[in-house]
Amino acid sequence: MCLQKDSLLFTATRHTTELTFRMLYSLARFKCSLLQVLKGASRTPRPITVPRFGHQTLAAALPAVGGSPGVRQARALDHERLLQVQWDDGACSFYPFTWLRDNCQCPLCTLQSAQARSILLTDLDVHTGVDQVRVTDSNKVSITWPDQHNSEFEPDWLKKRCFSPEARQARQEELFLNERDFWDSGLQIPTLDFKEVLHDDKAALDWLMTLRRLGIVYLKGAPVEQGQVARLSQRIGYLRLTFYGHTWQVQDKPMANNIAYTSGKLSLHTDYPALHHPPGVQFLHCLQQAQQGGESEVVDGFHVAEFLRREHPDAFNTLTSLRVDFTDTGSDYCDFSVQSKNRIIDVDNEGRVVRINYNNATRDSVLDLPLDQVQSFYSSLKTFVELMDQPENVVTYRMEPGDLVTFDNWRLLHGRKRYVSHSSLRHLEGAYLDWDEVMSRLRILRKAVHGDS
Amino acid sequence: MCLQKDSLLFTATRHTTELTFRMLYSLARFKCSLLQVLKGASRTPRPITVPRFGHQTLAAALPAVGGSPGVRQARALDHERLLQVQWDDGACSFYPFTWLRDNCQCPLCTLQSAQARSILLTDLDVHTGVDQVRVTDSNKVSITWPDQHNSEFEPDWLKKRCFSPEARQARQEELFLNERDFWDSGLQIPTLDFKEVLHDDKAALDWLMTLRRLGIVYLKGAPVEQGQVARLSQRIGYLRLTFYGHTWQVQDKPMANNIAYTSGKLSLHTDYPALHHPPGVQFLHCLQQAQQGGESEVVDGFHVAEFLRREHPDAFNTLTSLRVDFTDTGSDYCDFSVQSKNRIIDVDNEGRVVRINYNNATRDSVLDLPLDQVQSFYSSLKTFVELMDQPENVVTYRMEPGDLVTFDNWRLLHGRKRYVSHSSLRHLEGAYLDWDEVMSRLRILRKAVHGDS
Q1: Maximum Cα–Cα distance for chain A, whole Å?
Q2: Average of per-residue pLDDT across B336-362
Q3: Per the CB < 8 Å rule, is B385 touching A443?
């Protein structure tokens, strides 16, 4: 089994500026120097250990509630228009005046019940100075602004929002859990009990954390009747309706409106690249398996994409830059005529692979490329597909009635071997969700299980 | 009223390569020369007229069914691995062998009922030659491949997929209708009858075409009772469920979980940037208006963004490059803890503004920027907000019971003046949809009203 941290893999792709600041920061980390004024800092960057699985993340580098240092001193650096906070442990953080005024937590500036900003940007002086800074008896940082409006900030609140690169990185990882463990054919798919996930918060958190980090979790013991994927969706919040319905029945159907609704082989694909925002997470529940064939196959698309980047950089560049048309027409929940343009491999600004969009069945015959780019597109795509098809990348499993697989549809490619059904029809029920909703539930479960971080 | 074509505005930002090809193409457009072999062409690029509103688009440049020329000659250019098709009118098109084999329309290669590709990429020889090319008696292009598999292509099907820049541009505009008319405070918001839109395909098409091009359409005459936004959603397909419910009631509520659910002023914003894929289209139906205040305001975000690009390029670059955290926590349809990172202004690969993501209320206090970028972020945002607030950009209207406004939430910013209600509560009902679903219905209606294009 191959495990790689994308945080390591992508170190080389980070912005040079950021790297330079990090180096400067390392040199200066024990001093509240001008350098620190520029970038913010904390005295002792704790060693960050990232377990392969489980609940602990970079967020562990953030101070826990009650465990964070108090404010020793706070002062205004008027020239730099920064507030300098020195913590009890000697570390320093720096906060721009404008940001502090923008985020005043008082009831006039924040609608408490919605935890939303009510101060208008038009009323914000983005060049504000400060009149007075002091530390209150309850160890809050109090700022009086030139118009005599007063803001008070809790030490924990400030500490969590420190602008140092380390604090920002830890906070972002806590919010979005973007670290991934890549895998190949050696993966033992993590398996949990369906009913435990439904009824136990710790099991549900375990499920979603693993789904996020690894991209796939198998649940066993679901009742062998329709409606279980909807039930599981409710555990998160709600499912995502598409033109194939709230949930959909994967069976061999006459006049199939989708290639999945046949008994043929399904080559490795992601679902619904014909939408501009394909579903993030997919559930598939086995109600009836075929007599012969019908085994499932999955591949870690991020792992294969990284291999492509290293070994076939031209192909990687082609698939991350050219936009390909996808199409899906027919009738199901209602009639539909869907068209999208998606890159086969989506990368974010930092070069991280964030989504695979590939379904050969719905790739449009309309190909919006200049003639001289067509051949390189096909060659690049073929290279990528051959890589994902290699046995060392493919995990094969056979679903039995009551099994329910949950996976990251932005990351995994999945397929199915052709099958033969004699007496009874192979039948899976499926549903989609979006990552925003899944991550929302994950954050809420994490808070319930571990408390606020 | 100010109207600008983004197709004109963006000419300067197109890829130089594409421009070069266009120039070469212009020089060579009357000859089936090697240059055309490289880029594909059609003999007479018709003048393209784009009306400000209405149904006609660049797609009009595409041949209508029955009106397109037949095939005069087809031959294989083996060295270039291209099929050359000469049309009856003397124009030429060129198609790569690989693309033709990939898009064989025979029942073995295409699942007819789903109009989906069934040939696997692993079975596609991306370096294929051809054995024989001929024009059949029914004027189809017939290709026999080296393995003796045979493909036949209809002239119309091929013509629509011509790789010339003009044909591709026309096809893309037909599929996605990306041309927009920008506007300012002089806009007279187009108004249609609610019931006509529900029951008449031509009115519904008019509605959606105008919604796409202009970003806002007002519907009058909806029954003054809840459920009308859901009814209108069904006219398209389905609405988008969010944490605020299938539809949501905009009223002054105790312990409001959203700043919209107060009687305060709402500054100009887009809805739900706390989702990574904010809703594309919004419906708001007035059931009860306030006694005083509560007027609605809208601004064309694309128009303002273009002004920002021209007049404040640094601010534009800042807002199109920095990703900003948004947050939304609370409980409604269920409990939620949503976080996103979005740019305030999203541009596509060609530099076109494609989405505005801005709601000051849900902009997170977590700001993931290095200290030295914070001030330029605030200054840029303030410049953008001041521009959108300028009276020459703002259209103000007052909704009355039975009015229903539909608008592009990726493009328009909307706001509301503060209001006072005495005896009865101001009440709007809202719903969201996504553009993919709206565009799907638009394509189906266009086909129903105008026939296949």
Answers
A1: 82
A2: 96
A3: no
Interatomic CA distance for residues B417 and B405, integer angstroms: 16
d(CA B136, CA A14): 57
In chain B, the N- to C-terminal Cα span, in Å, equals 32
pLDDT surpassing 50 at residue B35: no
For residue B255, the distance in angstroms to the closest alpha carbon of chain A comes to 5
Q: What SS3 class is residue A72? A: strand
Share of chain B above pLDDT 90, in %: 76
Instruction: List C-alpha distances in Å: A412 to A212, A219, A305, A415.
Output: 12, 17, 11, 10
The HSE-up count of residue A417 (CA atoms within 13 Å, CB side) is: 18
Confidence check: pLDDT of B2 > 70: no
Question: Average pLDDT, stretch B357-365?
Answer: 97
Q: Which residue of B has its CA nearest to A363?
A: B117
Size of interface A-B (CB pairs under 8 A): 247
- As a whole number, the mean pLDDT across chain A is 87
**Tens digit of each residue's pLDDT (9 = 90 or more) over B411-434:** 999 999 998 877 778 999 999 999
| Tokens read off for A265 | 């082989």
The partner residues of A293 in beta bridges, in order of sequence, read: A419
Q: In terms of Cα–Cα distance, which of A149, A97, A180 is closest to A355?
A: A180
Tokens standing for A96? 């721009």
Q: What angle do CA A51, A53, A54 make, to 5 degrees?
A: 95
Which tokens hold the place of A52? 């392969």
pLDDT in tens, B196-238: 999 999 999 999 999 999 999 999 999 999 999 999 999 999 9
Interchain contact, B371 vs A39, CB within 8 Å: yes
Picking from B276, B277, B242, B237, the residue whose alpha carbon sits closest to that of residue B260 is B242
Q: Pick the range with the lowest mean pLDDT from A209-218, A302-311, A391-400, B115-124.
A: B115-124
Nearest partner of B345 among B376, B297, B309, B370, judged by Cα: B309
Residue A286's nearest CA partner among A433, A401, A161 is: A401
Identity of the residue numbered A96 = P
Query: pLDDT-derived band of residue A453, with 50, 70 and 90 as boundaries?
Result: low
Question: What pLDDT score was predicted for residue B42?
Answer: 37
Q: State how far the Cα of A218 lies from the Cα of A437, in Å rounded to an integer.
A: 20
Q: Are A435 and A237 in contact (CB under 8 A)?
A: no
Which residue, among A15, A120, A152, A325, would best test binding to B if mutated, counting the most B CBs under 10 Å from its CB? A120
ipTM attached to this prediction: 0.87
Name the strand (E) or helix (H) holding A96.
strand A92-96
pLDDT in tens, A97-115: 999 999 999 999 998 888 8
Q: How far apart are CA A275 and CA A269, in angstroms?
A: 14
Which positions in chain B touch A363 (Cβ < 8 Å)?
117
Please report how many Cα atoms fall inside a 13 Å half-sphere around the Cα of residue B54, on the Cβ side.
9
CA distance A49 to A68: 19
Q: Do B259 and A114 touch (CB under 8 A)?
A: yes
Helix pair B435-450, B228-236: axis angle to 10 deg = 60
Cα separation, A374 vs A357, in Å, equals: 18
A309 class by beta-carbon count within 10 Å (0-12 exposed, 13-18 middle, 19+ buried): buried
Alpha carbon B382 to chain centroid distance? 27
Mutate to test the interface with B, among A440, A442, A446 (most CBs of B within 10 A): A440
CB nearest to B276's CB, from A21, A366, A436: A436
Name the percent of chain B lying above pLDDT 70: 85
Q: Please determine, for residue A263, whether its predicted confidence score (pLDDT) is greater than 90.
A: no
